[in-house]
Amino acid sequence: MEQIDTRTIQALDAAHYLHPFTDHAALAASGARVMVRGDGIWLWDSEGNRILDAMSGLWCVNIGYGRQRMSEAVYQQMQTLPFYNSFFNTTNVPAVMLAAKLVELAPPGFNRVFFTNSGSEANDTIVRMVRRYWELMEQPERHIFISRNNAYHGSTIAGVSLGGMAGMHAQGGPLLPGIVHIDQPSYLEHGQGMTEDEFGVVAAGWLEERIKTVGPHNVAAFIGEPVQGAGGVIIPPASYWPEIGRICKKYGILLVADEVICGFGRLGAWFGSERMGIAPDLIAFAKGVTSGYIPLGGVLVGERVGDVLTARGGDFNHGFTYSGHPVACAAALENIRIIEEEALVARVAEDTGPYLGAAFEALRQHRLVGHADSFGFVAGLNLVRSKGANVHAHEVFDGDLGVGMLCRAHMFDAGIIMRAVGDRMIIAPPLVMTRDDIDEMIGRITLALDNTVAELQAKGMLP
Ligand code: PXG
């Protein structure tokens, strides 16, 4: 490989490259880490460090890095037809084959797909599609979306508005009107004095309360991630989603599952909805559909909306140049073939997922870990100052101390990428991880936790 001069790349990066969600003054001072290569679950930076990627890139590299077959599939498609659009009554073979394949993998009742380039565009499309549906149903007053605090639905204006991230709402307003939020089903945050199942029903009840305050005839849809990802791997109690479904049905409201993270095996099913007891009308997907090798997203459209849109809608005036991009669709088809051939979904459900779950539960023994949980191949642990008799009795750190970020730095030093959301450390590993890989990962996490304790003690932040 060509020799990469880290300092030169960092200087050019600081001068010209605006990164997502980044404090550029701070980045320029520290210099960006330059990633240069990936293979399986491993990444290499320009300094030669080998790092275990427990975040799958950004919740997406489900089949792991460096899969030769992906390059070949993309190469072949580029040679044959690198691009053609799907406007003006034209189509292309990979887009058609992928749409048919996705319908086969989706829960029953999903017959149609709209392609986008990202999860944000998928959710933007959903806002326009849902509102169009209610126009066609001659109930245009039904335009309000109900979402949740701390949800992440993307970075376009509709995505930010649907999302419930306070830091994003604070910038670049005004947001899209007609979107309201209820609290997230976080047992840790709100479930004191209740069993998890009791809490799930209470949290779903917040939806019904909000429907009543805004007026049921004004509500278009409820949107949620089966498990909230960017918000910190918030795993709802088992009672939550069935109750949400019951409430949506009662008021005739559309139910949207944002499966951008949870889809394509992440939760041990092709779609997280299946394992969470969700019967959605629309599904947003992206990320794992191509394992991030090429950008692609889209919306799986259930019969209720799809039939109305296609039978009596006329033109739906919406779409992107790259909707159904043949190269992206060819990448997705190959990615899905790999997931099927290696039975990764069943492996996560039956073998490596439970193994990861047991390993995370064992991490609760660590003095710094107050709570640890997982679902399929997402997991999280909460750093606490001291432990009480139950999860609601732990003594947490002062948020201003930034203990999560400090721990994240130790993770990097231990050769593992883990994300910090406040003082919750989270992972979403590649689905190809084996039991041995999981052992290796837990070893590195434990080392980093020990080093975090040592630093906190040296700074007088822990006894
Ligand atoms: N929905 C969900 C549930 C997501 O997780 C999007 C939509 C938007 O997808 P695009 O492809 O437009 O980025 C996402 C993206 C994080 C983080 O910090 C998570 C995402 C994006 C950026 C950062 O965990 N998820």
Description:
The N and C termini lie far apart (about 50 Å). This protein has about 475 residues and is α/β, with parallel strands linked by helices. It has 17 helices and 15 strands. The strands form three sheets. The chain has a seven-stranded mixed β-sheet with strand order 4-10-9-8-7-5-6, with helices on both faces. Strands 1-2-3-13 form a four-stranded mixed β-sheet. 3-[O-phosphonopyridoxyl]--amino-benzoic acid binds next to α6.
Quick gist of this model?
The chain is of the alpha/beta class and 463 residues long.
Show the helix and strand layout.
Layout: H1 6-16, H2 24-30, E1 35-39, E2 42-45, E3 50-53, H3 56-59, H4 68-80, H5 93-105, E4 110-116, H6 119-136, E5 144-148, H7 157-162, H8 166-169, E6 179-182, H9 187-190, H10 196-214, E7 219-224, H11 240-251, E8 254-258, H12 272-276, E9 282-285, E10 297-302, H13 303-312, H14 326-341, H15 344-362, E11 369-375, E12 378-383, H16 403-413, E13 416-417, E14 419-421, E15 424-427, H17 435-458
Parallel strand pairs: 3-13, 5-6, 5-7, 7-8, 8-9
Antiparallel strand pairs: 1-2, 2-3, 4-10, 9-10, 11-12, 12-15, 14-15
Helix pairs in contact: 4-14, 5-14, 6-13, 10-11, 15-17, 16-17
Helical residues, percent: 40-55%
| Amount of beta strand | 15-25%
CATH class designation of the largest domain: Alpha Beta
Tell me the quaternary state: single chain
* Major sheet strand order: 4-10-9-8-7-5-6
Number of helices: 17
How many strands, what sense, and barrel or not for the largest sheet?
7 strands, mixed
Predict the CATH topology of the largest domain: Aspartate Aminotransferase, domain 2
